[in-house]
Amino acid sequence: MISAAELRELREATRRFVRASTPRGADEHEAAASAAPDRRVWTDMARRLGLQGVRVPEDLGGTGLDLEAELVVHEEMGRALHGGPFLPVVGQAVPGLLTLARDGRVRAMLTEIAAGTSVVVPADARWYDPQAAPPVLTGGGDEGTVTGVVPAVLAGAAADSWLVPAGAGGRTVLALVRSGTAGATAEPMTTIDLTRGFATLRLEDAAAVVLARDAEAERARDAMEAGGALALAAECVGVAAEALDLTVSHVKVREQFGQVIGAFQGVKHQLADLYVTLESARSALAFAARSAGADPPLRDAALAVARRRCGAAAFRIAGEAIHLHGGIGFTWEHPAHLYYRRAKTNQVLLDAGGRQAETITAGVAALYAR
User: Fold this and answer.
1) pTM value?
2) Each residue of 338-367: pLDDT tens digit?
3) What b/e readout covers 247-286, taking b as 16+ CB neighbours within 10 angstroms?
4) What is the second-level CATH architecture of the domain 219-368?
5) Cα–Cα distance between 4 and 181 in angstroms, integer?
6) Under CATH, domain 4-119 is a member of which superfamily?
7) How many CB atoms lie within 10 A of CB 5?
8) Model confidence over 76-118: pLDDT tens digits?
């Protein structure tokens, strides 16, 4: 288990690196999003800090740290509005691959991820849209072809390969499709979030390697879904914390009627209320992380609470930050709208359709039925 001092050092080192390597303004983010993926940041991150291997076992080239350490990194990514493939690779793909780590092919993939030489992202819409139909695998054995469309794949256009849960005659398989494969196309999407890339993955008889089937595939898929939700929730805490810090700094120097606006009671109360909202989200995230290894009713309910609470907190605080900044908060040049855009996008991904309330209700009912 990592100590509090080591966790603090990890946070500070991550913050320094991510802030130095992430675009600041809207124009810079737009330029980065339209350009070809820059692998220098990805490889430097692995070489200097080893962040891609934060959960990868040491014998596979990672640092083998715990979930708490990973979430600290995601939080700092959110603070800086980092838009690289870190979240889908480390937050989603790695947890799923770890459930299959006895497979030599998967172990090799984890080693490449930890070294920063490979970008593997999931292409699965179920984690934010449970009704989404998966692609279809044709063929038996360890190889086949996949056909289907997966929208809103995080860092989909920057991937070297995609982990695609697919249906095969009523069964579930986890297939690996490599970038550049005939019939596989990742089309960049335009979204409200200027800081992160999404893509629609179109597969038309694309060659694929089957990594798992049936129960093993479902376990890997569940791990990717839960890992991605926790990572996004942690990122929301970072977004909310930075938006609040920017606002507090602003009201300390912005003057009106001969004094700084932070001295006005109405502003003080509003900021105090936002701070309570932030800490409530932080507590929900911590409880969900501690419950990750618990039985399903508690684990699922705790994660659902974090998904709702963290997404809503980030959206509320980012929105209030714009208003508390006054006229400058509404400008293109100020970063407030970037935090608002990221917060809203994350909130939709975490709780599309408000389904997490149903999960909370079912989980609590199951716990009290024992």
Assistant:
1) 0.95
2) 999 999 999 999 998 888 999 999 999 999
3) bbebbeeeeeeeeebbeeeebeebbeebeebbeebbebbb
4) Up-down Bundle (1.20)
5) 45
6) Acyl-CoA dehydrogenase/oxidase, N-terminal domain (1.10.540.10)
7) 8
8) 999 999 999 999 999 999 999 999 999 999 999 999 999 999 9
